[in-house]
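Why do we care about 3D structure at all? Because function follows from shape, and shape follows, mostly, from sequence. That is the central idea of this module. The next example makes it concrete: a single protein chain, its amino acid sequence, and then its structure expressed as tokens.
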Amino acid sequence: MGNSVNRDSLLSWILVTFGTVLSAVGYVIFILPLHLFEGGVTGLGIIAAKFLGKVFADGKMLPITGTVSWALTILIFAVAVKILGRSFGAKSVYATTLLYFLMDGLLWFLQKNGYDAKIFELFSGDLLVAAIYGALSIGIGMAIVFNEGAATGGGDAFCQIIRKKFHIQIGKTMLVTDSIVLFIGFFTFDDPMAGFKTMMYSFIYIFICTQVLDTVLNGFKANQLVVINTGKPDELKEAILEYIPTGVTEYTAVGGFSHKERTILETVISKKRAPELKRIISDFDPDAFVIIQNTAQVYGPGFDELPKAPAKK
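And the structure:
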């Protein structure tokens, strides 16, 4: 049992590392060299790096985005650990440190060897491509990290706190906070028209990134609510309980047109088991009326644990 726990723990840290590296590569290849903006704490770090670059480096962005972002993250993490638990803190500190170290290190390497200028020349004519691929890389990487109970920065931790407290999807919260940071970033441009163009592409990147994040994150624990209006409830219920490891709720409903009583079976299953359930229904009652809906969150035995209520003062 102990070896299994250790293996699971090791795999979790490996996945956190992979997701963090994937996000860092997305930032350094597609976002930073093209002066696109990120939201959240990382976006504030980019704004600081651009502003200080104007003052001290002849307009060239300084490779300090990670350092500034890490400094801003510490306070948010202090709050997040209390709400999300100590395991969140350990993995998140590791993921955030790795991300920001890689961002600054890789960006410094690109600038030193002139690769940042080559990347800018390669994608400057088609910022949409950079925005899309940057969003895919960063969104998938962040989703992997989030799924392991960690975050890659203060903004991510803030979104997870909101999801824990108010059950609002991470992507929705992130879209709002990122848009605010994006608005602030507009004022770092000397040329308003150039700034407006960059902001538009940055918003496309942020929007796609949040959609990818929610899609991938929900895909890890994708479940479906299945409502079955059947004339053979006993046979079908026994088959579901025998072949699919899930519970079944049974209740009686009256048809609005026929005024006849019918038995309704209701269950929640993972998406990967949905084809099997449909075959079972077809075998036992091909005339059943079936409704299948995607679910955003499911709590209870066999699924996620309900969030703990805040302690009373």
